[in-house]
Structures are given as C-alpha cells and as structure tokens.
C-alpha cells in the first residue's frame, strides 16, 4: 500500500495517507486488540444502508460474545465495530480469514458470494481460537482477464489499480469489472 500511495495512484483520496499506523495495526486503532473478526454480507442482504445493516448484525454478535466470554471481550472505551468507517485494512483481514482473495479487478472475491459483498469487523480484546484451518487462497483468476479487457478507462493494469482513472472512484457508477467477473454470475 505504501508503494501504491507513493506512486500517487490513490488520486485525491488523501485520507488514505493518514492514520497509517492505525491502518496497519488494529492495536493502535483499538488499544488492547488481539483478534479481528471479519464478516461479509452480500449486497442483496445489506440494502442501501449497508453500514447500518452490517453494524447491526455485528452488535448482535457482540452481545452473544459478551454472554459467552464476558464483557471484557471488547473494549469499553474505544469503538470496536467497523464497516467501511475506520482506518482498517478490511480486505487484508478478509483474506487472512480465508473469506476470499483479491482478484485482478482489485476486489475482494469470495469463492461463492463473489465480490458484491460488504465487509464488517469486530475487534476483540482476547485471542480467539478458530475451529478451521485457514484456506490459503492465492488468486483464483488464473488466466482470466475479462475485467482487465472490459475496463473502459484502463484503470486496471494487471497488478495495479489506478484510482485516478477509475469511474467508480469518481462517480460511484461503474461496476463493469465486477459485473463481468464469473464469480458474480
Ligand atoms: S470500476 Fe469501472 S473504471 Fe473502475 S476499474 Fe472497474 S471497470 Fe474500470
Ligand atoms: S473477471 Fe476474471 S480476472 Fe477479473 S477478477 Fe474476475 S476472475 Fe479475476
């Protein structure tokens, strides 16, 4: 990410240059953080106000976690539930949690839900053991390059996404590279 920022490919998203310490280390964002739990909600279940829907589900999860592990499982002084609202490398945590891989369209792609998903996180103050061994997704795009060829502006250049050329970044009205992806059909 540092390299991408240094090349200026983030355009006018200046906020990405700030709070990098928090972005790279959740314990700076939420003192006492030990575990990041990530969840995905598909577009069709999240509706327009996806922040509210995702956070509502995470608050329900938080209540259940407190019941099982005690109130101290989360910070009582710092915000610890997030959905697209904090300096948090959401996609990184999703990949680490085996919720998908980063495709050539630079979207997080879940193998069955595709990329039309919203991530949400709850940061815990305890280490939580998982039941399953994480799946190591690399990229499952293989030889496909449908999104690269379909992008109308050339914003996708193999390993690089240039926000300055991306219509979605400018107007939020381009889903070409997601609609064409076989994981979304
Ligand atoms: S959102 Fe549109 S312009 Fe941006 S990378 Fe995807 S296809 Fe290209
Ligand atoms: S369209 Fe093809 S290359 Fe692009 S993200 Fe989807 S699978 Fe990968």
In total, how many beta strands? 7
The 3D shape can be described as globular
Structural class: alpha+beta
Identify the bound ligands: iron/sulfur cluster
Compute the number of structural domains: 1
Distance between the termini: 30 Å
Strands of the widest sheet, in order across it, are 1-5-2
Outline the low-pLDDT stretches: none
Largest sheet composition: 3 strands, antiparallel
Percent of residues in helices: 25-40%
Q: How large a portion of the residues is in β-strands, by DSSP E?
A: 5-15%
Order of helices and strands: HHHEHHEHEEEHEEHH
| Average residue pLDDT | 89
Radius of gyration: 17 Å
Put simply, the count of helices is 9
Oligomer: single chain
Briefly summarize what is shown:
By secondary structure, the protein is of the alpha+beta class. The protein has helices spanning 2-6, 20-24, 26-29, 43-46, 50-69, 90-96, 146-150, 167-171, 176-179, and strands at residues 35-42, 81-82, 101-102, 108-109, 117-124, 156-157, 160-161.
């Amino acid at each position: 990410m540092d390299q991408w920022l240094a090349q200026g490919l983030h355009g006018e998203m200046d906020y990405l240059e700030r709070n990098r310490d928090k972005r790279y280390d959740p314990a700076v964002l939420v003192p006492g953080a030990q575990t990041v739990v990530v969840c995905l909600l598909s577009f069709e279940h999240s509706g327009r106000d996806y922040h509210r829907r995702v956070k509502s589900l995470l608050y329900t999860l938080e209540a259940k976690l407190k019941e099982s592990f005690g109130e101290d499982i989360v910070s009582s002084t710092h915000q610890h539930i997030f959905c697209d609202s904090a300096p948090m490398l959401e996609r990184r945590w999703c990949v680490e949690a085996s919720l998908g891989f980063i495709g050539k369209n630079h979207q997080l792609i879940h193998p069955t839900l595709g990329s039309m998903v919203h991530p949400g996180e709850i940061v815990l103050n305890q280490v939580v053991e998982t039941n399953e061994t994480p799946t190591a997704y690399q990229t499952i795009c293989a030889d496909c390059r449908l999104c690269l060829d379909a992008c109308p502006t050339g914003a996708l250049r193999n390993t690089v996404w240039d926000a300055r050329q991306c219509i979605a970044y400018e107007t939020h009205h381009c889903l070409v590279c997601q609609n064409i992806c076989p994981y979304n059909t």
